[in-house]
Amino acid sequence: MGQNLNETVGALLLGSLFTAVGYGITTMQTYMYMTRFPKDPKIMRYTVWSLLILDTTHITLSWHMVYYYLILNYDNPPALERSVWSFDITVVVTAVITVVAHCFYARRVFILGGRQWFLTIIILCLSAMRLIFGTIVTVRLFQIRELALVPHKIGVEVGVGMGAGTLADFIITVSLVWFLRGHRSGFNSQTDNLLDRIIFWTINNGLLTSIVGLVVILTCIIMPYNMIYLAVHLLLSKLYANALLATLNFRKSHRGRGLDDEDTTIQLSGMSRGRRTESGLQFSGKDSTTAPVVHVVTTTTTDMQFEGMSKVGSHSDIDFDREESIHPLGGLKEDA
């Protein structure tokens, strides 16, 4: 019985404790974001607030689970074999948090990928599958009730939903790394080092959520008679929320590193089929005591032949720092 408790309520208790720590970090990061970036666009601020609300809902449901199994059903082992309504709802709440994060990253892929829709649509479709199957699993859990029957009754739904989310994480990570490596000039070690740090950050975020998603699938299939997979699943929403918030707050910690000048611009340029794109990382500061601010300035010049006349136009400057700065996972403002 002791071993059974370790694998059931013991695993649930540990999962809830780590989840509470994750929620504390979410709250702290939300406060940091709201105080550091008050001028970010409303869509980004609404995204952060929605994550906090969803995460608060999730942690409340988690606490109810612990109270139900450890207090209300103390010394009632048969209760451990049945799911409680709060657990059922955490499944769809986690799916919604995952979708919010995926949509956020899909926009980064869309912008860094030159506004090509192919990868973005794939990511959004996989994210939609994650939400649809997460909702189906929640409904079926209310019907089945018996946790031991989950792999047999809805194992396919769990696998497809979690698999779609994991695949989306993988595609997002590979795409962002590929596009970021394409911006490495090879001539400026400072810029390349910054991009390398961002690439390292991106890989860590993507691998972490992907690995945890796979662990949920494997533990649910291999160990359906305990609550280990439930405990691991509780952590997933915190990883998505904190990864997204960390990428937004990441901008602040990388401003002005290693720079003595108040205004420095590092230019990267490329030429392809008559279209020239110049991207610069512009570091500027208000005074010598203030950490410089990172700007990404993009200048696009397009050569067009129209009815025998040569047009050189289409000049646009995009200042990404007003929203997100260089970090690819932050919100990049698009000026028409």
TrEMBL record:
The keyword Membrane applies. Keywords: Membrane, Transmembrane, Transmembrane helix. Coiled coil: none annotated. InterPro entries: DUF6534. Residues 166-253 form the DUF6534 domain. The chain crosses the membrane at residues 12-34, 46-71, 83-105, 117-139, 159-180, 201-225, 231-250. It holds the Pfam family DUF6534. This is DUF6534 domain-containing protein. It comes from Sparassis crispa.
